[in-house]
Specification:
Elements (H helix, E strand, L loop, with lengths): L1 H12 L3 H23 L2 H18 L9 H19 L21 H21 L2 H12 L4 H8 L3 H19 L13
Helix pairs in contact: 1-2, 2-3, 2-4, 2-6, 3-4, 5-8, 6-8, 7-8
Length: 190
C-alpha cells in the first residue's frame, strides 16, 4: 500500500483531484479513529477530520515525503484536534459513543466482549477527562505506539515535553481508573 499511496501523493501534487480522493478513501478510517480518540465524540471527530483533509488538500504541494503520508496526515489531524478543543467550550462534556473505544477480540466470547466494551468505555471516558495536550500524547504513545521523538515532532513540542505530558497523562488516568491503588503504585493504567 505504501507505493500506491506514494503514487497517489505524486498525482495529487500534480493536481489530480481523483488521486487525493483516493488518498482520503485509503486513510479515512485511521484518521477518523485518531480524531475520535483525541476529541472524544463522533460529531467533533467528523469536524476535525473534515478540517484535516481540507488542510491536507491545500498543503499537499508542501508535502516533501520526509515522512510517510499517513504520519504527515496524523500530524495535521492532531493539530486540527488541538485547535478544535481549544476553541470548544471548556465546560462541555459529551458522552462517548459505546463504539468509540478499542475493538474487542471476538474470540473472547460474549462475556469477554462485554468486559472489553466496559473497559473501553471507561478508558474512553477517562481519556475524555484529560486536558487536550495530555490526551494527544497518551493517544499517540499508548494507542498508536509512536516513539516520543515522533510524538514531539507531530505535536510541535520537545521530546522532553512529550515525556512529561505522557507521565502526567498516565498518572491522571491511573487516578481515574485505579482509584484504590496508592500513590506509590507501580501499576500502569495505559
Amino acid at each position: 500500500m505504501t507505493s500506491e499511496v506514494s503514487e497517489l501523493v505524486v498525482s495529487a501534487q500534480a493536481g489530480d483531484r481523483r488521486s487525493f480522493d483516493e488518498l482520503v478513501r485509503l486513510t479515512y478510517a485511521e484518521t477518523y479513529t485518531l480524531a475520535l480518540r483525541l476529541v472524544g465524540n463522533n460529531d467533533d471527530a467528523s469536524d476535525v477530520v473534515q478540517e484535516a483533509y481540507l488542510r491536507a488538500y491545500k498543503s499537499i504541494q508542501s508535502f516533501r515525503g520526509d515522512a510517510h503520508f499517513n504520519t504527515w496526515l496524523y500530524r495535521i489531524t492532531a493539530n486540527c484536534a488541538s485547535t478544535y478543543l481549544t476553541k470548544r467550550s471548556r465546560h462541555r462534556h459529551d458522552q462517548l459513543d459505546d463504539h468509540s473505544g478499542l475493538a474487542s477480540d471476538p474470540a473472547t466470547g460474549p462475556e469477554g466482549r462485554s468486559e472489553a466494551a466496559s473497559d473501553n468505555r471507561e478508558m474512553s471516558a477517562a481519556l475524555a477527562q484529560l486536558p487536550a495536550s495530555l490526551r494527544a500524547v497518551a493517544v499517540l504513545r499508548d494507542i498508536y505506539d509512536l516513539p516520543h521523538a515522533e510524538i514531539a515532532r507531530q505535536l510541535g513540542i520537545t521530546e522532553v515535553t512529550a515525556k512529561v505530558r505522557l507521565h502526567r497523562a498516565r498518572r491522571k488516568l491511573r487516578e481515574q481508573l485505579l482509584p484504590h491503588h496508592g500513590e506509590g503504585s507501580d501499576v500502569r493504567a495505559v
